[in-house]
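W.,

You were right to be curious about this one. When I first looked at the sequence I had no strong expectations either way, so I just let the prediction run and decided to look at it fresh. Below is the sequence, 71 residues in total, followed by the output.
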Amino acid sequence: HLLSRRQRQMCIRDSVYIEVKNSKIRVLQSDCPDHICINQGYISKANQTITCLPNKIYIIIVGNDEVDAIV
């Protein structure tokens, strides 16, 4: 999913919710047992990632230092 720069919350898999706010992204809610993906907080720079193995989710910021797209 591509998300714009404005604030948005979205369910991306069953009970996994992400939030995009001010060109940053984080996992807001997840049913995984250890919540590492939630505790990682916001990412905002190119090549930063968030991974949730139990839910098979991988978020990476692509582009230069400014957010072009979140995939």
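Here's what jumped out at me. The helical segments are 36-39. And, maybe more interesting for your project: The chain has a mean pLDDT of 85.

Coffee later to discuss?

I.
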